């Protein structure tokens, strides 16, 4: 019987959750102008998710953040 790969949830989904958080934080500054100062820290989760990833993974994480930003803001 084959054993399943033991990959933790945080290893698999942490970068995706961080990129999504960055997109939503960026969109919230457009929706609620009083939160304008939040834009300065909105990219920190995205930068954390990009470290140590391949070029393809970075592209997909940036695409995720961008879709959530534009989908939420406009």
Secondary structure layout:
Elements: H1 9-31, H2 39-42, H3 44-50, H4 55-73
Helix pairs in contact: 1-3, 1-4
Radius of gyration: 15 Å
Low-confidence segments, given as residue ranges, are none
What quaternary form is this? single chain
Q: With helices defined by DSSP (H or I, 4 residues minimum), what is the helix count?
A: 4
Largest sheet: none
Quote the beta fraction.
under 5%
Number of strands: 0
Mean pLDDT, rounded to whole units?
Answer: 90
Instruction: Count structural domains.
Output: 1
Globular, elongated, flat, extended or rod-shaped: what is the shape?
Answer: elongated
**N to C succession of SSEs:** HHHH
Relative helix content? over 70%
Structural category is mainly alpha
CA(first)-CA(last) distance: 50 Å
């Amino acid at each position: 019987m084959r054993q399943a790969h033991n990959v933790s949830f945080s290893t698999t989904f942490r970068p995706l959750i961080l990129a999504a958080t960055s997109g939503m934080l960026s969109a919230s500054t457009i929706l609620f102008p009083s939160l304008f100062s939040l834009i300065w820290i909105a990219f920190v989760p995205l930068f954390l998710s990009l470290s140590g990833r391949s070029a393809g993974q970075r592209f997909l994480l940036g695409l995720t953040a961008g879709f959530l930003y534009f989908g939420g803001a406009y």
